[in-house]
What does this fold into?
Amino acid sequence: MTSMGQMDFFSFPTHFIDSSHIRIVHHGMVSPDRHIHTMIETMDYVDERFSLDLMLVPTYHQDYYKVLQKMADSRSNVRILNPVAFEEIIPFTTQYDIGFFLVPPTTYNLQMCLPNKFFEFIQARLAIAIGPSKEMARYVQQYDLGIIAKDFTKEAMAESLNKLTKDDIKHYKENANKTAQILNAEQEGEKLLEMVNLLLEN
It folds into this structure.
């Protein structure tokens, strides 16, 4: 989980929410099993107020990256950006409104995934938009962090996004701000240290 210390220099809210231009971001590795193409296709079904920026880290899936680039180029509401350095991910993404991750559970790992980007969304004080991924959904529900589409289709995600109001997004971002004080490296590190000490005592 991302260190809370990285966010100490930010004050909430990190930026003004423009109801006429809701900015969505996804960042991560280029891989077909992450269904980035589905996230792009989702933007064909959302209201015109939404836009999506993809900050993608190139991999050996060069052909897939070219497909994604072509898809983005053909849409006015999708862009592919160059990745920033790891330590800049959170500061950079605070300018957005919603962190987006929609990945079907095609493998057990994807079914149970709880990726770094999920916690980076929280530390960036973003509302979160995901499919019904079991572990991520558990945290989204527990801390009231955003929306969970009814399934992993682009239509279902777009339906959930289109229902969002400016006040909804503000509410989720405020909850992310509170949750960032709980789900961070300092807090979780203390728990891990306690478990290690307990094992050493036994």
